Amino acid sequence: MPLQQIKFYQAGSHVVGNRLLDPDQRTVQAEAGRSNTLTSGHRACQGCGEALGARFVLDAAMKATGGQMVAANATGCLEVFSTPFPETSWQIPWIHSLFGNAPSVATGVAAALRAKGRTDVRVVGQGGDGGTVDIGFACLSGMFERNDDVLYVCYDNEAYMNTGVQRSGATPPGARTMTTQTVGDEPGNPFGQGKNVPLIAMAHEIPYVATATVADLRDIEYKVERAMQMRGARYLHVLVTCPLGWGCASRDSIRIARLAKETGLFPVFEAEHGEVTSVSKIRSREPVEAYLEPQKRFAHLFGEHGRPDIVTRIQAIADRNVERFGLV
Ligand SMILES: Cc1ncc(C[n+]2csc(CCOP(=O)(O)OP(=O)(O)O)c2C)c(N)n1
Ligand code: SF4
Ligand SMILES: [Mg+2]
Question: Most C-beta atoms within 10 A of its C-beta, which of 114, 148, 277, 283?
Fold first, then answer.
């Protein structure tokens, strides 16, 4: 078969194909001290919280491991926007896995490293909420149960974004997705369904569980560093804004992630061996409307034909979190 020349479409920019170019043709995004695990030039939407979160998680993990790290990735937006064949934004040893088996692939890499006596190389698994709380959940629970030496990170944008915004087990009540339309008595995603994976992870009594949002990148770095100081199964659940799926302005990505915490809808905490060890307190408490209104996925709850009764039910969820985790 004749050899085909590969064309790099973004070679002139802060390139996706960077690693595949000759060294003298490569660009470096920031200063040399920064590991740049996920370089710019990828195809994420403007304001994508997942791109931001992943970059900070993996840069922090690189720093904590002295660059001795392998990442396994579930398919989803993160993988699709960062690795369109034959290019890649990843500047780390990185392995593609299926939608549903990233925790198992990460476990396998960790087992292979153990068999080779390479205790210096650490493993991070990562995926979206669909890949983690739904299809990959059995693999994740097994990873927890065996206490495999992996940090698994879920980037939770609260739906299957890569395939066009379908509901996942992490979609919040009342939210409109393509599969939870705003029709009937209970428009949007039904109440009383879904899974809280940070709490389920805690029930496995693994060494470390933490939640974070992309509104506090230093907190993400701290939690990754903390996780990498430990061995065994560790779980980090990061709320990441998705301007496309949530119907919010790209420029509001960080503000909305912050409001998720400040309303109490997304509790930010750490837990070790099944017990909560620290909680990020709410600095200035906001009503849930402040978080819901700027997002089109909740637009049906407001305006002339709005549903204040549903907003009240969502407020009750926030109030319960505040009580349960001692957020104020
Ligand atoms: C077994 C299987 N079913 C469905 C798909 C199609 N698929 C790829 S990614 C994805 C959704 C990913 O959602 P999530 O994990 O939340 O990641 P996001 O894109 O939101 O970041 C789906 C349904 C697949 N790749 N494999
Ligand atoms: S659809 Fe959402 S998660 Fe996917 S790249 Fe765009 S903003 Fe990011
Ligand atoms: Mg998702």
Answer: 148
